[in-house]
From TrEMBL:
Keywords: Metal-binding, Nucleus, Transcription, Transcription regulation
Keyword Transmembrane annotated: no
One Pfam family named in its UniProt record: Fungal_trans
Localization, UniProt: Nucleus
CC annotations in GO: nucleus
Signal peptide stretch: none
UniProt-recorded name of the protein: Zn(2)-C6 fungal-type domain-containing protein
Domain Zn(2)-C6 fungal-type: 28-58
Lineage start: Eukaryota, Fungi, Dikarya, Ascomycota, Pezizomycotina
Amino acid sequence: MSMYESPPDGDGHGNGMHDLQIGKAPQACMSCRKQKRKCSKTLPACALCERMNRHCDYTNAAPPPSSEDFNALRQKLMELESRLNGGGMNSQLSPYATPSSANLAATDNLGPPVPAFTPPQDVPWQGIQNRFPAIAFLDSDNFKYGGIVVPKPNLEIPVDVLELLGDTETVQATISEYFATVHKWMPIFSQKRITRNMANPLWEAGPDLGLLFLCMKLITSRPQDGLESSQHPLYVSAKRFIALLEATGTATLLMLQANILVTWYEYGQAIYPAAYMTAGWCTRYGNMLGISGNTYATDLLGRVGTWTEQEERLRTWWGVLIVNRVVSLGSQSYVLNSQEPKKGDPLPICDYAWDTDDMPTAQQALVGSPISEPVAPFPRLCQATIMLGKVFSHNYGDEFPSETAQYDAATQLYSEASALAGKITEEAEADQDFYGHASALALTYSTLCTLCDKYSRPKGGKSPGNESSDMLVQAIEGLKTVSSSVVNFVNHIDVHTQTLQDLDRISPIIMDALYSAAANCAWMVRESGDEVYQNALDAIRICLRKLGTRWRNAAEYVRILEAQEFSYAVGSAS
């Protein structure tokens, strides 16, 4: 059975004495009455409760107040408070405090200011059971060979998540927008599989699928003026829902995929340290599921049943590697992963074959395949990720017997990364697909900048030797070359982002390359005052401002550049 599909529902017709004779309850169970859903009345548990693996209660006791009841009471209380403080009968306070609402409350002359009211979210923490088998970690061999299965999450989708998701048409619109935008640069989901799943009502699917749809809506949302991205209702509900699923011991591929989207949102909207921590969570979770290629890991997902399932696991793990390395750019604190890709590991198949579900006939390249071998944009992004991993290892992990060996290794890495950038540029021009190749090309530029930056400054405390001086010159020339390429890249962005819809197709992956090139240009302006580098800096900064309307990490980079420029101006004046 597909992991996106639910088991078929039981048949529940009939009533009265006939129901009692065939083993049916005289009334709906408490859970179905509370949620206002049709109950099959089967004994000892109705079809819905049995599918959700929860206790089915047929007692005649009145169901406890629902979240809608509490919300209605809160609304009445808010209206009474508004009257007492001089407000009109129709006054309503926003559930999310904003600066404008706070200022409005502060200017009320009829009484003390009323604090913005934030209704507490009803989270079903009570009664949560963690049924994850501890033996999977305490004795993995017995878990593997004992036929023990990790149970599916036993949890209802929270009310606030259902309200944010909307009806089936709204969910379908969210999915369509996701596959038209984010999927173009992070194609880790099977479009056909998710489309088939939409034939089933959302409430009949597992809660992890509901979380995935919520995170799809989150990653496709644009920043809102006056609202911090960390306070976005979709983000707050997603993080709370994830914590809830963690408490139940959920171990599913959907859970990991949803968290990859959350990490991209946190990175793209510059929410720290959350982005860095969530990226690490994804790495450990992927290792736990057993999709990382580590033969010693416990396989919690079981054997794959289809080509699609196998490819989706592979693409999801590559998604983990990509987001983990991109988030580490600039932080100088990349933690090397024990499951680094090996030469014999497969790359994702052709993107077209993946989207059309035609995988058996598609060719699959390997990690060790030569760069000259043609591959699709997403495998190219994976190759750029591998190259970045090599540079991280060179900068932070590798030990060399001598400086000569270190410089030789750096020169070889620069040559390989430059060849990859040239190949991607060639394919982008041939395919006339800027959006598809932009992420891989930008990540390659970031890789080159990360490598050259290490050798572009003299080592403090001692005079550089001939080899060190030569390496410093090569690194500076490398930064100039990469920065020039990024300026051309920026020109392509300007041409392809004429509307807001175009910005939605741009990946946040590209921002580090733009900032690195801008920082290099600013440094060269301070060193030489060359007008060429000043024009390049201005062009990159204008592009970052435009992209900042979609991804706030671009706006943060602009702020950093302006702060550096201000500090330099003050220092020069004094």
